[in-house]
Amino acid sequence: MLQRNPAFEDRTPRRILRGVDRLADLVELTLGPVGRSVLIDRGAALPLVGDSGYAVATHFDMADPVAQSGVQALRHLAWEMSRDFGDGAATAIVLARAVLAGLVNMMDAGYDPQHLGDAVVRRAKAIAAQIEASAVPANDIGTLRAVATTAAGGDAGLGGAIGEAFHSVGRAGTVIVEAGHGVGDEIETRPGLHFGSGWLSPAFVTDDALGKAIYDDAYILVASGRIDRFDEILPMLEVFSQRKKPLIVVAGEVAGEALATLVLNRRKAGALVCAVAAPGAGDWKAMNLGDIATATGATLIGDESGHRLADIKPAMVGRARRIEIGRNHTAIAGGAADPQALEARMAHIRGEIASARHLAYDREQHELRLARLSGAIALIRIGAATKPALDQRLEVAKRAVAATRSARAAGVVPGGGTSLFRAAVQAAEAASGSETELMAANVLAGALGAPLRAIVSNRGRDAAHMAGLVAASSDSSSGYDAAGDRITNLHAAGIIDACEVMVEALTRAVATAATLGSVAAATASASKRNDRGAA
Questions:
Q1: Any idea of the CA torsion for 130, 400, 57, 32, to the nearest 10 degrees?
Q2: Helix, strand, or coil here: 461?
Q3: Tens-place pLDDT, residues 298-321
Q4: Angle at CA 469, nearest 5°, toward 464 and 474?
Q5: Residue 527 · residue 2 · CB < 8 Å
Q6: Alpha carbon distance 307, 322 (integer Å)
Q7: How much is the pLDDT for 172?
Q8: What is the mean pLDDT of the chain?
Q9: pLDDT digits over 149-200, tens only?
Q10: For the stretch 142-170, what's the b/e string if a residue is b when 16 or more beta carbons lie within 10 angstroms of its beta carbon?
Q11: 422 and 395 in a common domain
C-alpha cells in the first residue's frame, strides 16, 4: 500500500491556491479579443499552442501534489464548461482563482471557512438570478452572429456562418458542424426529418440526374427486424399498388428474396417502391426506427412493439408529404405524426439527453435524434487550407455552436466580463446581513471583476481605471470594448455573451472555490511524482 502523507490546517488552502494561481495566470492571457496564446510543452510530442482556457488547463501540472489538486479541480471545472456550453472555461477559471484568493485571505483573518464558503455560494446564486433577469432574447441574426463570433475567438467568418445557420433553422431546429472538403465554410439547411442512410439498390432511383428516389404522398412501412421473405410485405405492396401510391419500406434489414423481388418489381413493372436501410447500429438503430415511425405516424413493426408483419394493416403504415432517398441520405418532409405522440417522444429524448450528460457520444446522438424530430437541421461544413488548421477550426466551431445554442435558449448579456462586474457592484451596494454575509459580498465584489480586469490588462491598459469608468456609467449595457479600446454600448457593438454561460461560469466557479477553501488537509502519495511540464 502506498504511504500517504497529509498536509494539515492553514498551509493546505495556501498550497492549493499556489497551483490555482499558476494556472489562472496563464489562462488569463487567453481572455478577450486581444488575448494571447500559450505554448504548451508536451514532452516528446510537438508543443501545442493553446488559445483557450480549456486547452491550457488540460496540459498544465504542478510538481507539488497539494498544489496539483487545485489545478485538477480547475481542470475539471474547465472540462465541464467546455462539455456543457462550449465556452466560459477561461472565465470560470479566472473567477474561481479570484474567489479562492478572497476566501483564503478572509480565513487568514479568522473567518470560519465553512460558514464563509456557504455564504459566498448563496450570494453567487442571488447574483446569478440578477444576471438572468437582465438577459435579452437572442433571436435576430445580428445577435446570433455576435455571440458565435465571440465564442469563436473573434473569427467573424466562422461566427457569421454559425449565426446564419441558427437563424435559418429557427428555435426548433439545430445546427451541426462537420469537416468540409474545401477551404471555405458551407451551410446546407435541411427541413424535415433526415437520416444518413438511403436506398438499398440503385434500381429504386426515380431521378437519375440526382441519383434519388423521390416520391410525393408516400406511405412508409417501418419495421425493426429483418425482412427477407417477399410474402411478408406482399399484402401491403398490393394494397398501395392498387391505390397507385408509393410504398417505402424502412427496416432493420431488407435482404434476400424480399429485396430481390422489390428490385424486380421496380425494374419490370415500374412499381412505386423503395427499400431503405435503417440508420445506426444496435440499440441506436432501434431508437432511430422508433423516431421515424413516430414522425410519420406509423406503427413500429417488430418484437419491441409486439406487432408482426403478418398482422399489419394499411392503417399501421405511416405517411409523408414527400420523401427523397439518396444513396446515403434520406429526407422526409411533412410526416403524418400524431402531435401528442411526437411531443411525448421528444420529451422522452430530452430525458435521455439529461441522463447522458457525462457521456458525450450518447448525448450527441440523442441531441441529433431530437433535432430530427423537432425541426430543420443546418449543416455547416468547415473548411481550411491544411489538416491542422481544419482540426483547430472544427473544434472552435463546435464550441461556438454550443455557446450560440445556449444564447438562443436563455438570452444574452453584455460581454467582456461586464455583466459579472456590474452584478457584483450592485450586489455589494445592496449587501446586508451578518458579518459573514457582508464579508462574502466583499469577496464576490472583488472577484467578479477579475475577467474584466484581465481583458483590459491584455489590451495593455490600466485595469483599475477602466473598471472605474465602467462602474461610473449609468448605461447597464456600457462596458469596455477591448478591440476598439473604448467604453461603449456593448449590445450595439455586438460584444455579448450567452447568459447561461456566464451564470454557470459564476456558480460553478464559486462552488469550486468554496470547496477548495474549506479543505483542512490533503493527502498525497509519498512515492516520487513524475510530472511532465510540471511547475
A1: -70
A2: coil
A3: 999 987 767 777 778 889 999 998
A4: 140
A5: yes
A6: 26
A7: 65
A8: 86
A9: 988 878 889 999 999 999 988 776 778 788 888 888 888 877 678 888 899 9
A10: ebbbbbbbbbbbebeebbbbbbbbbbbbe
A11: no
* Assigned C-alpha cell, 237: 405492396
- Supply the pLDDT for residue 322: 87
Q: Beta strand 247-254 with 213-227: parallel, antiparallel or unpaired?
A: parallel
**Cell triple for residue 143?**
445577435
What burial class does residue 187 get, using C-beta atoms within 10 Å of its C-beta: 0-12 exposed, 13-18 middle, 19+ buried?
A: middle
Unique residue bearing C-alpha cell 445556449 = 406
For 9, the domain range is: 4-136+415-525
Counting Cβ atoms within 10 Å, is residue 519 exposed (0-12), middle (13-18) or buried (19+)? middle
Cα–chain-centroid distance for residue 415?
A: 19
How many domains does the structure of the chain reveal?
3
Distance (Å) of CA 112 to CA 11, 107, 119, 421 = 15, 6, 11, 26
- Please choose, from the candidates 341, 244, 364, the residue with its C-alpha nearest in 3D space to the C-alpha of residue 292: 341
Same domain, yes or no, for 107 and 41? yes
Same domain? 156 vs 177: yes
Going from the C-alpha of 287 to that of each of 172, 194, 283, 324, the distances in angstroms are 21, 14, 6, 21
